[in-house]
Amino acid sequence: xxxxxxxxxxxxxxxxxxxxxxxxxxxxxxxxxxxxxxxxxxxxxxxxxxxxxxxxxxxxxxxxxxxxxxxxxxxxxxxxxxxxxxxxxxxxxxxxxxxxxxxxxxxxxxxxxxxxxxxxxxxxxxxxxxxxxxxxxxxxxxxxxxxxxxxxxxxxxxxxxxxxxxxxxxxxxxxxxxxxxxxxxxxxxxxxxxxxxxxxxxxxxx
Length: 206
Hints:
Blueprint: E1 7-16, E2 21-22, E3 27-34, E4 46-55, E5 61-67, E6 74-78, E7 85-86, E8 93-94, E9 101-103, E10 106-107, E11 109-110, E12 112-120, E13 130-132, E14 151-157, E15 163-170, E16 176-183, E17 192-198, E18 204-205
Parallel strand pairs: 1-9, 1-10, 12-17
Antiparallel strand pairs: 1-2, 1-5, 3-4, 3-6, 6-8, 7-11, 12-14, 13-15, 15-16, 16-18
């Protein structure tokens, strides 16, 4: 373990290179870990605690000075995913020069809201229907459990390339089915409505 009280500076910028804009007010977290035996959450590394955090400014820049606690030997910085920022391009990054200054930049992707206006046909079978979209936090997408023409869900999409939103259901015999709705490329970040009709003939076995 490293001694307690070693000051380390971490600074850098979070930028969306695809859309050429900074990522503003994005949280960054310093995590403390060590390689001592114990409860394993990763490859031979024990998580100890989140010990400090900060946010990016209007230019996507951040700066943070943290101190070692005497409990760990490894420190890393990461930025949690939010509804409107996709952070999976870069995982947590180890801070290599403890006691020195470290420049660590991130390249993330801005996401933009789309309102799904879903109409479930009156003769539709096999509820509930689960919804999945690659860039949207799945826990924010509630299942469809009723037949209605007034079901609203919100997803978050990147700009400039097509994608799908997937609807899943399970038949009484255990057969899973999916309907993949194609979303064409979007070039503006303005919110808009997307009408989707769910009917039995949409779904295919998989």
